[in-house]
Every structure is written in structure tokens, then in C-alpha cells.
Design a protein that fits this description.
- The chain folds into 2 domains: 233 residues, Aminohydrolase, N-terminal nucleophile (Ntn) domain (Glutamine Phosphoribosylpyrophosphate, subunit 1, domain 1, 4-Layer Sandwich), CATH 3.60.20.10; 326 residues, Rossmann fold (3-Layer(aba) Sandwich).
- The protein contains 18 helices and 27 strands.
- The strands form 5 sheets. It has an 8-stranded antiparallel beta sheet with strand order 3-2-4-1-10-9-11-15, covered by helices on one side. Strands 5-6-7-8-12-13-14 form a 7-stranded antiparallel beta sheet. The protein has a 5-stranded parallel beta sheet with strand order 19-18-20-21-22, with helices on both faces.
- Helix content is 35%, strand content 25%.
- Helix 9 runs antiparallel to helix 16.
- A hairpin with a 2-residue loop joins strand 12 and strand 13.
- It has 593 residues and is of the alpha/beta class.
- Bound molecules: 5-amino-5-deoxy-1-O-phosphono-D-mannitol (M6R).
- 5-amino-5-deoxy-1-O-phosphono-D-mannitol binds next to helix 9 and helix 16.
Length: 593
């Protein structure tokens, strides 16, 4: 949550910061701000306001500078106001900081150290700037920052500049990501490698509780005891064109359409001929475990629910799926030999990191399935597998969800008796998605006619129930229609009371065994006024069904069946004129617990 970019060097800092923030806007977009050093006035100028980076870009377009730090915010403490936007300053204005994360003990720090200070914002962040200034009155700046850092509880990626020393940027982090990029031209410090594309050649991924002192030609890394550490450089290898919309109106639409390609890429990345290259040590460790525990949040958790079916049906391996934020503090009783799979598109989700830190204390074996192979969760797990979805920019996850399911299917398949050709069957799924997406106009018309109410439901049984949860999440997060996903048989046990004249109820039917049951449940709601929509496959269709997809291998059906729900959500949001890629109150990468 929140994106930060700092630059010091020979190029125009404002340009690099604003371009970087535009690429990081997925992390939060309530407000944006930056500070850059003004050589003529010999001071750091601050620009910040509510709204998007595009506003900051416009208001700072004349600004030239060689050093600065910037921020795009997802509000946690304090409303979305210009005063609460970053950067924040110390009492005299000497220290200026941007922050991603939450300082959990900010109130206690205020009470203990800053009773007389007056604060300009309602944020947890401002306390950090005040503390540094206080300590800097009787120690070096580096020691003042380190002393402050040792007092902080919570999560932070911080950039700090000092009005008295425009030749230095200080950076520190605990939990949220922070990368230091370098080129002959200067140093860029940021939350995501996307901001380094075209700017830095190599980058170092900062570990927790490390501190960087950056000058235009020099980067020094320390631990919190001020002992020098070695930097580990890796190449910046990002194709920025992947972060552009191309011919599509929205990233979400582009990413939905990329799904067949993602499935094909996964096949080519994970197979050499018919031999899969999934680490045999990983497969052995899972085989030897008694039970798999899948941990994740949001859409990734929904992929985990489908993964449970893959592991149980294909490989006979029992699976429990847990919401990361629950598991982190209420760990259930575990079997004596558990294996943990953490699923995260971003690899940075704080709720999941809290789980991983606990699991590591117990020395449990862990696998991270992620789209960002350099991410914290990937680096810290025992095993990692990449989902190869390419950058997903729209906040609503689509192609990453399908890719997560595909990779889980491959692991389960490798543990199974391999009774079908998964490469061929996945290729058929990719083709079926393409066939469906060829002409989406009927879906658009259907959505405009039916999704006109405040509430909606998705229902299904078995795997289709797990899909119903994801279909509902997608619809509510971008169209703001209140939507619930329900086990089809469960509605009549209470929730059916909410069905009114015209309430849309979408049924997903991909499993033959439950085809007729789900249809009966639909009759129950239809007779109470609901408008039903059926998404099914060719071999299960009945007269009057609304969305009929090609038949695919049954266990892989979720990868196809979800696509119409994505398009329903897309068209519903489009019809209402909402910001599809950046829905209200949300951010793509959730780095606070
Ligand atoms: O990066 P992660 O996969 O760990 O993110 C988890 C959720 O925040 C995420 O899946 C969220 O639910 C989606 N953006 C919803 O579309």
C-alpha cells in the first residue's frame, strides 16, 4: 500500500519520481505528493494534494531538480486530505519524509517523546519526522534516524531528506518492500522494480531493518547497529510496455484478454517436452507431508479454494484453505507434518507475511506461489513457484487468478497418477477462453439489462461455489453492486429472504453431478422474483441458458468458467462509469495488516 520513489543524481528528479509514481499508482491513489530540492531557493519545496499522480504531474511540470522523494497514498491513518498526503515534515520543517506502512505505536511515541510538538496531520507518519529532528539536535543525522527506527513498531518503508544536506537520501524498511536502483546517472529508491525500468541498471532488494545512505554516486547499507553490510546487485529486467494499456480501454480488459497467453506461457515455462520442471525436492516434501495448508487473501484465497479440489481430487492429498489474516493470529491445530502453500500475486501481502514469519519460527516447510519472484514472500519461503502472468496493473485481479489456479493444477498433477495430458487440456482451456472472448457484446447487453439493482448473488456448488465467491468479489469491487457468493444449496437456509423482484442471481454450473441441483435452487429464487443467469458448458446446457462455454476437461473448468464473471464485472462497472482499474478505497498491493 502506498508507493514511494526517491531519486538523487544527474537527471531531473521530478521526472523520474512522477514517472515512477505513475507506475506505482496501483499501490494507492488517494493523494500524491513529492518534495524536490530547489537550488535557487536552497530549500526543499513540497507539492502535495488529494487525487491522482496526474494532478501532481501537472502542478510540478516546471520543476527541475536533482534530488527528491515522492509518494502515492492509500490512506490508513487520517482522511484523504492534502494535509494528510505525504511528504510530512518535522516541527521546523528540517526533515521531510515519505512512508509506506503503519507505525503501530505512533500514539505512544507522541505521548512519550513529543508531548509539546504540534502536528499538522492526522497520520501515524509525521511522528517519525518529529522524532528524527529531536534526536538530530544532539547527535549525527544518521544516528538520529537509527535511534528513531529502533523506537518504531509496525511496518514501514521510509525515505528521508534533510533541508541541511540536499546531497543525501536516507532509506529504511521493515516489512514493505524497498529497492535501491543504480546507474551511472544516479540512485533511485522505490517500492517496486517497475519504477526502475529505464532508470536503473541494477538494484538491491533491502532486507528488513536495514538502512541506506544514498548519494548520487554512492550507496551505503547498514544494519540498525550502524554496521556496514554488503549490497547484492541484480539486473533490472522489466519490459515497461507490459505496463501499458496498448489498444485496450482499461488494464482489466487487457489482462482478461491476456489470459489464454498466460496459460500458454505457463505450459511452456513448466514443461520441457512432456517433462515438468517443478523442483522434485518440492514434490517430495509435499508428498511426505500429511496435509497441505493453503494461506492467502482475497482473490488469491479463492484460487486456493480451487487448489484444494485439485490436490484432493487429483492427488488425494487433504487440504485446508485459510484466510491469511485469520491464520496469522488464530493458527488452528495442525497435523504433525504440515506443508504450507502461500499464494500471493504481489508477494508482498502483509497478512501473509505475518503468517510466514510465524511458520518460520516453527520451521515448517513453505512454498510461495507468486507473480513476483523477487518479492519478500518468494525470498523468504523454502520453495517458490512463479505464475508468469506478467505485470497485473488493474486492482481487480484476473489473469493472476487464472495463473495461480493453473500452477496449483500443475503441482497437484505432478503428485497424481497423471491420468490425462494436462498440457493438452490446459491448451484447450486457453482456446476456449479465446473463443468466449471473441465476441463479448452479448454479455454487455445482458449486463446492461439485468445488473440494475443494488444487490446480486452468485451461486454454485463444489468448485463452482469457490468460483461464485470470486465472481461476487469481482463484481462488488469494481461495480460497487453489493454481491454475495453462495453455496447454491445454502440460500434457502436464510439468505433467500433477500431475493426481491429483479435481483440478479448468477449460477455457475460446470459439474455434471450437481447440474440439476443447482438448477433446482435457481427455480427457488426465480419463483421469488429473481432474474437468473446461467453460465455453463456445452455438454451441460439446457434451453434458455445464457452463457455457454466450450467443454473442457472437468477439473480444469474453473479456469474457463471464471472468465464470463470477469466480463460481467467489467461491463457492470463500465455501464456505471466507474474507474475500472482503480476502484474506490482499494489498492493493488496490501502491505499493511
Ligand atoms: O497480492 P495478493 O495476491 O496477495 O493480494 C491479495 C488480495 O489483496 C487480492 O487478491 C485482492 O483480493 C484482489 N485485488 C481482488 O481482485
Amino acid at each position: 500500500m502506498c508507493g514511494i520513489v526517491g531519486y538523487i543524481g544527474r537527471s531531473n528528479a521530478r521526472e523520474i519520481i512522477v514517472t515512477g509514481l505513475e507506475r506505482l499508482e496501483y499501490r494507492g491513489y488517494d493523494s500524491a505528493g513529492l518534495t524536490v530540492f530547489n537550488d535557487k531557493k536552497n530549500t526543499f519545496d513540497i507539492f502535495k494534494d488529494i487525487g491522482r499522480v496526474s494532478i501532481l504531474k501537472e502542478t510540478t511540470k516546471q520543476v527541475l531538480s536533482r534530488v527528491g522523494i515522492g509518494h502515492t497514498r492509500w490512506a490508513t491513518h487520517g482522511k484523504v486530505t492534502a494535509l494528510n498526503a505525504h511528504p510530512h515534515t518535522s516541527s521546523s520543517g528540517r526533515f521531510i519524509i515519505v512512508h509506506n506502512g503503519v507505525i503501530e505505536n505512533f500514539q505512544q511515541l507522541k505521548d512519550q517523546y513529543l508531548k509539546l510538538a504540534s502536528f499538522k496531520s492526522d497520520t501515524d507518519t509525521e511522528v517519525v519526522a518529529h522524532l528524527i529532528e529531536g534526536f538530530a539536535s544532539y547527535m549525527t543525522v544518521e544516528n538520529a534516524i537509527l535511534t528513531t527506527l529502533k523506537l518504531l513498531h509496525g511496518s514501514y518503508a521510509l525515505l528521508i531528506v534533510d533541508q541541511q544536506d540536499p546531497d543525501t537520501i536516507y532509506a529504511a524498511k521493515n516489512k514493505p518492500p524497498l529497492l535501491v536502483g543504480v546507474s551511472e546517472d544516479g540512485v533511485t529508491i522505490t517500492s517496486d522494480v517497475l519504477a526502475l525500468a529505464g532508470v536503473s541498471k541494477n538494484y538491491h532488494v533491502m532486507e528488513d531493518k536495514t538502512f541506506v545512505v544514498a548519494k548520487k554516486d554512492e550507496v551505503k547499507l547498514y544494519n540498525y547497529d550502524h554496521e556496514a553490510l554488503e549490497l547484492n546487485w541484480q539486473k533490472v529486467n522489466v519490459d515497461v510496455t507490459q505496463t501499458e494499456k496498448g489498444n485496450f480501454d482499461h488494464f482489466m480488459l487487457k489482462e482478461i484478454n491476456e489470459q489464454p497467453g498466460v496459460i500458454r506461457r505457463i505450459i511452456s515455462e513448466y514443461f520441457t517436452g512432456y517433462k515438468s520442471n517443478i523442483d522434485s525436492r518440492l514434490l517430495k516434501t509435499i508428498k511426505e507431508s500429511e496435509r497441505i495448508y493453503i494461506l492467502a487473501a482475497g482473490t488469491s484465497m479463492h484460487a486456493g479454494l480451487i487448489g484444494k479440489y485439485f490436490f484432493e481430487k487429483l492427488a488425494g492429498k487433504p487440504v485446508e484453505v485459510h484466510i491469511a489474516s485469520e491464520f496469522a493470529y488464530h493458527m488452528p491445530l495442525l497435523v504433525s507434518k504440515p506443508f504450507f502453500i502461500l499464494i500471493s500475486q504481489s508477494g508482498e501481502t502483509a497478512d501473509l507475511r505475518a503468517c510466514l514469519l510465524k511458520l518460520k519460527q516453527f520451521k515448517y516447510q513453505t512454498l510461495t506461489v507468486t507473480n513476483v519472484i523477487t518479492s519478500t514472500l518468494a525470498r523468504e519461503a523454502d520453495f517458490k513457484l512463479e505464475i508468469f502472468a506478467g505485470p497485473e496493473i488493474a486492482v481487480a485481479s484476473t489473469k493472476a487468478y487464472i495463473a495461480q489456479m493453473a500452477v496449483l493444477a500443475l503441482i497437484a498433477y505432478e503428485l497424481s497418477a497423471k491420468l490425462f495430458d494436462i498440457k493438452m487440456e490446459l491448451a484447450k482451456v486457453a482456446q476456449a477462453i479465446e473463443n468466449f472472448l471473441f465476441d463479448p457484446t452479448p454479455i454487455k447487453a445482458l449486463v446492461e439489462k439485468v445488473f440494475i439493482k443494488e444487490h446480486a448473488f452468485y451461486i454454485g456448488r463444489g468448485m463452482d461455489y469457490a468460483l461464485a465467491l470470486e465472481g461476487a468479489l469481482k463484481l462488488k469491487e469494481i461495480s460497487y453492486i453489493h454481491t454475495e457468493g453462495f453455496a447454491a444449496g445454502e440460500l434457502k437456509h436464510g439468505t433467500i429472504a433477500l431475493i426481491e423482484e429483479g435481483t440478479p442471481v448468477v449460477a455457475i454450473i460446470s459439474e455434471e453431478e450437481m447440474n440439476m441441483n443447482t438448477r433446482s435452487n435457481l427455480h427457488e429464487v426465480k419463483s421469488r422474483g429473481a432474474v437468473s443467469i446461467i453460465i455453463t458448458m456445452d455438454s451441460l446446457k439446457q434451453k434458455g441458458d445464457d452463457i455457454i462455454l466450450d467443454d473442457v476437461y472437468p477439473i480444469l473448468a474453473p479456469l474457463l468458467m471464471i472468465v464470463p464473471t470477469q466480463m460481467i464485472a467489467y461491463f457492470a462497472a463500465l455501464d456505471r462509469g466507474y474507474d475500472i482499474d482503480k476502484p474506490r478505497n482499494l489498492a493493488k498491493s496490501v502491505t499493511v495488516e
